[in-house]
Each structure stands twice: as structure tokens, then as C-alpha cells.
Amino acid sequence: MRIITGYLLILLLIPAFIAVVILTYTEAGNAVSISKTLDEKIDLTETKLSQTSLILANNGEVISEIHRPMNRSYAAGHEIPDFIKEVFIVSEDRNFEKHPGFDLPAIGRALAINIHSDDIEQGASTITQQLARNQYLNHHKSYNRKLSEVLYAYQLEKTFTKPEILEQYMNAIYFHNNAYGIKAAADFYFKKAPLDLSQAEQAFLAAIPNNPSYYDPIEHFDRAKKRQERLLDQLAQHGKIKPETAENLKKEPITLKVDSRKNSYPDYSSYALHELRELVSEQENLDDNEELTTRVEELLRSGVTIHSNLDIVLQKQAVQAVESRLPDATVQGAAVVINHETGQIVAVSGGKGYQSGDFHRAYQAFRQPGSSIKPLLVYAPYFERFEANKDFPINAGPLCIKGYCPRNYGGSNYGMVTLEKAFIHSYNTPAIRIFQQVGVDEAFSDLAPFKLKKVTTQDHVLAAAVGGFTTGVSPLEMTSAYTVFSNKGLYLKPRAISKVTGADGEVLYRWNDEPVQAWNPSTAEKVRSLMQKTVTTGTARKAAGAGLGAGGKTGTTNDFKDFWFIGFNGPYTAGVWIGKDKPESMEYINHQSPHLLIWRDIMKK
């Protein structure tokens, strides 16, 4: 019944559709041609041609080139081989030379399929419509967009000749791996100009745009090769080449010559692009993910420059430290370095061997913080509310509260100790006692300025004092929060982006964060002093080589599944996390303290 209904609807829609395009437009009883209306309403000079966007380090060096839908390398019609033009016409739009921009029979077939499936599966787009979509519209699937696409295509056909439309189309289509247009694709995959491509190479490239990610020649070479062979068969079937020619072209070896585009520090540039989404979302009030993605893509197509806070020297040190100190293939890590004096994120390691698109452990990995949470959730809230100093006595003996019986590392009990000793040796039972005295909800309220994404009211339990969270925190979050101890209790959210400028140099975006007084300066100074003592005589002695003023706090979770160290030295606060992506015990490397050695390698003067 649904199919019959669909066909009836088609019968009604097609005449109406034809009427929209062909019949007159009536206003106040006077007929005005739709051609004139389209001339007034559709401006084909306002194309969506893209430019390359850049990410700069803090010294102005280009660290990443970002290409979005259309590469600026343009191939004129005479620079494009006739053979590949024929491949696209046969495979994409066999009525290209005859239709006025749209193909009504194809639209009817597509409507039948879409109504039958309750979705928009078939587009029936001609080459002209595809050009309209790529150059003037967007790729969002809807019937409204499809109608706009048809009207633009109609106008394109009135404005340009068929060869001109085909030329523009060949420069607009996407060949994956940021290669847009035949000239960019030929250069990227074969290091050739389009006219220097063999016919087999041309057919191979023509195989990609139908589904660029699926036919990605780098990741899925075999898929692209099989589609190339199908395209050659189609050419033979339609009499464009002889069958024996098709067979010979199929046998010709395809050898890619691919060099990656400039992306010198992918750990950092990947995070900078993530932060760009946050910046645009905040300043343009865009909460809808699809709408935000569209806006960011528009910006990157417009040729913006992202001025970052990357310090190239520190970035190299951070990446190298993570790589060299983690020889075990199963152990991963992340590091973040922040200039706490300026609020700038100056270096980021997203993981050992990180490449663009990988899981970014610096901001996407949320793990149990262990004792590294104590300065933030236990000691700072305690000093803020009680007149206590480092010599204040605290019980480090056994403790049980309503069935919760935490233990000190190794199961040891220490009796009465000073706050300093409890901190620098990371005793657990004193931390629980202090946390209970402050009040669980009270202590958590102090974390509000840091906006820890995955921390919820479910975490408001005593175990949180020693790092027992439902989900956890990221290395970036922890490092950012620790900057407060070197800023007299003042928290300014650290950022990777200093500003974003347009192609004309105009400043389009910059952060307008306001600092928040998280704790009193005296509270921050007390915790800072304890962290310095932790490096000189406590659990972080292996980090002491970084410098005389260095300080920080270690953290180890149950069964040695996570190692943390966050600390400061000079103008920098750095955080290091070590763990396995699927949490497992790492007790076998505990004695090596790789987290401390990585931190020391990054931060030593």
C-alpha cells in the first residue's frame, strides 16, 4: 500500500515540480518569467570556493595547513583530459549533454525509492546539481535543499556552457584526503598534472568521489581499484572504449606517490581544532552539534588563520619524553604543559605515536586521578576553611566509616603525623579524615571553577578524596586546575588559541575568559609549599632534577592502573598521565616511575 501511495504522490509532485521550473510566476495578475525571478534571486558570483586555513605556533611558524572542500589549485578545461571527463559523464550523468540541469525521470525514480524506504537514499543528482551543491549549497539531505539544488542547477545551465559546467565540476568534487578537484587529486596521489595521468590512473581517480571515505585509496586501495575496473567496464558497455582496451587498462599497475600535507605537531593542532569548536560555540551561541559543525567547516573553508600558543621547543620535548620513556607497546601516556603566568597551553602530547584523528588522551581520556586529586579536593578546601599549617597534627591510623575502610599504601599505619608528612607521602587515611571534616559537598563545591566535565553528584562520596570517581578526569583538566596553585588561588582557564583571524587579517574570535578566585592566596601558597616538599623529600623525588623550585603531586590508582604527576617549575605547570587504554595493572613498571621521568624531561631547565 505504501508503494502505491508513493507512486501516486510522485504523479502529483512531478507536474507541480515542472510547474515550478517552467510555468510563469504570477504577481498582481501579471506574469513574470521564472527565469527573471531566478536571475534576481540566485547570484552565481557568491560561490563557496574554499581557501587553505592555517594554524600558527606562537612564533608565527605554520604548523598545519587545513584544506577544506575546494583546493585552490584550479585546472582549466584544456588542462583536464577528455578521457576522465567521459568517465564521469558515463558513471554520474549519461544525459548530461541533453538535460537542462536536472533529470526528471531520474528524480521520479529517486522519489519512489525514498518514499518506499522512509528515508532519503537516492539523490538523482546530475553533474550540474552536484556542482550546485558543492559550490553554492551544502550536503544536508532534505527535499528543500534538493529543490534549491535544482533551481541553482537550472540557473547554472542558463549561465554557463556544458564544457564550462563540466570544468567547474571537475574542480569541485572531493577525492578524499583533503584533495578537492582533479588537479589537487592528481598531485596528491600521483605527483602529476592531470594531463600527465595515464588513462588507468584517470579512471582510478574517478573511482573515489562516489564515496570518498569508502574508496579512500590510502586506506582502501582494493576498493578503489575494483571500482576503477567497474568504471572501465561501463565505458566499454557504452561504446566509449573497446572491451580489450578496458581489459588492458585494468591490468596496468597503479602506484601511489603520496606525501602528507604539513601537519608538524598533530597532537597540538588536533586539540586546537577541538578548541576552535568550543570558541565558535561559545561566541555564536551554537548548541546544536550539526549546526556547529557546519559553521566551523565554513570558517575553515574561508581561509582563517588560527593563532595558537604552541611553544615548539616544549612541544618537541613533551612528545619525545612520552615516546622515549614508554618502551612497552601496551602502555600509553599523555602530557600537557601550560604557562600559568599567561594561561596559555604551550604543549600537548595526545599519546605515544599520536596521529591526527587518533584518540587524544590529553583531553579525551577520563581516568581515575588517584592521590593527585588531594591538593584540589582535600588540602586546599581544608586550608581555606580551617586555621591550620603544615605542622598541624592528623591521624594516619586505621579508619572505617560505615563500611568504607581505606588503607594507606602498602597497608601501613602511621599514627599521628603532621599535615606535611601526610601530604608528601600521600597517606590516605588522613586525607579521608580531612575530607570528612570539610564536608564532601563543601569540598566538591570548590571544584566548580574548573568545570570538570565528567564529575557529577555521584562522585560525592568519601572515596573521592583518594581519587575514587565514577568516570574520572582528563590530563588537560587536572593540569589546568593545578595552575591555580601558582597564581595565588586565581583560576583562568588555559587556552590553546590566542585568536582567529580571517583572510583579510581581521580578528574574528578570541577568548574572553574572566579569572575566578578559587581560593585565597594563602591557601594556594600552603599547598604549593607542600608540593615543593613532595619533590624534594616525598613521593616525587625522581622529579627533583627539573629545578630547585619545582613542586607537584603524584597519584597512583588501585592495582597500578594509572600513574599521575602534575606539578610546576618556573612559569610552567605540567601534567603527565600514564596508563593502558584498557585499564590493566602496570605494577611491573611502578619502580621505574615513568610519569616522573617524563615530567622531569619536559620541565627541566
From TrEMBL:
Keywords: Carboxypeptidase, Cell membrane, Cell shape, Cell wall biogenesis/degradation, Glycosyltransferase, Hydrolase, Membrane, Multifunctional enzyme, Peptidoglycan synthesis, Protease, Transferase. Its EC number is 2.4.-.-. InterPro entries: Beta-lactam/transpept-like, Glyco_trans_51, Glycosyltr_51/Transpeptidase, Lysozyme-like_dom_sf, PBP_transglycosylase, PCN-bd_Tpept. It is an enzyme of class 2 (transferase). It comes from the Bacteria. It catalyses: Preferential cleavage: (Ac)2-L-Lys-D-Ala-|-D-Ala. Also transpeptidation of peptidyl-alanyl moieties that are N-acyl substituents of D-alanine; [GlcNAc-(1->4)-Mur2Ac(oyl-L-Ala-gamma-D-Glu-L-Lys-D-Ala-D-Ala)](n)-di-trans,octa-cis-undecaprenyl diphosphate + beta-D-GlcNAc-(1->4)-Mur2Ac(oyl-L-Ala-gamma-D-Glu-L-Lys-D-Ala-D-Ala)-di-trans,octa-cis-undecaprenyl diphosphate = [GlcNAc-(1->4)-Mur2Ac(oyl-L-Ala-gamma-D-Glu-L-Lys-D-Ala-D-Ala)](n+1)-di-trans,octa-cis-undecaprenyl diphosphate + di-trans,octa-cis-undecaprenyl diphosphate + H(+). GO terms for molecular function: glycosyltransferase activity. It is found in: Cell membrane. Its main location: membrane. The keyword Glycosyltransferase applies. This is Transglycosylase domain-containing protein.
